[in-house]
């Protein structure tokens, strides 16, 4: 899974507009590690669970779990053009 921050939130942030979050998205963001993952994606662009785990010092399984939770809240999207397999 290659993930990037959701385009609607990204474009709203870059244009200076406020981003509205529903309660589901706020619940997803309640975990501090997910905030770190989201910040990393916004600063460095699309990434994989493996790269995120290396950057944040967590295991790849935990990074993958938190990416799935961020995706379920609509805060990130998968980048289909970048592939979905493991990096070799």
TrEMBL record:
Keywords linked to the UniProt accession: DNA-binding, Transcription, Transcription regulation
Residue ranges of domain HTH arsR-type in the record: 14-88
* One GO MF term attached to the UniProt entry: DNA-binding transcription factor activity
Superkingdom: Bacteria
- This protein's record includes keyword Transcription: yes
Q: Per its record, how is this protein called by name?
A: Helix-turn-helix transcriptional regulator
